[in-house]
Amino acid sequence: MLETFGPFSESLIAVYTKQILLGLQYLHKKRIVHRDIKGGNVLVNADGIIKLADFGASTFMQDPTQTNGFKSIRGSIFWMAPEVIKGDGYGRRADIWSIGCTVLEMITARRLSPLPASDGKISALRVFKTIFPKIA
């Protein structure tokens, strides 16, 4: 949609973001962490209703607030939370980060970073360092 229509209006972003957050809230209450939220995994029907899609990377967590045991990198590089890229693990917070990246995508009609993801984790670390420069 972004390629066709460009950046979304503020009101449309608000409507879509609320629906995405409600869907994520439902998943998290069921102790499911999606692990790959991005624009391409957000479906919109003709009535403007949002559905989250592609649960291939999702997982059930006994305690979704914890990241222990889920240190594998899953999902799409440009939407990954810093803790996932650093290898510290994955939990609910990482899904919320991905929604933030998705909102930025709706605002700008671009990915958060222009760096290619072809070289996997190394590229992910480059993205991380580019977005979050070291603070003295």
UniProtKB/TrEMBL annotation:
SUPFAM superfamilies, alphabetized: Protein kinase-like (PK-like) (SSF56112)
GO MF annotation list: ATP binding; protein serine/threonine kinase activity
Keywords: ATP-binding, Kinase, Nucleotide-binding, Serine/threonine-protein kinase, Transferase
Pfam families: Pkinase
Occurrences of domain Protein kinase (ranges): 1-136
Stretches that traverse the bilayer: none
Signal peptide span: none
Domain of life per record: Eukaryota
PANTHER family reported in the protein's UniProt record: MITOGEN-ACTIVATED PROTEIN KINASE KINASE KINASE 19-RELATED, SERINE/THREONINE PROTEIN KINASE
Name of the protein described by the UniProt record: Protein kinase domain-containing protein
Species of provenance: Marchantia polymorpha (Common liverwort)
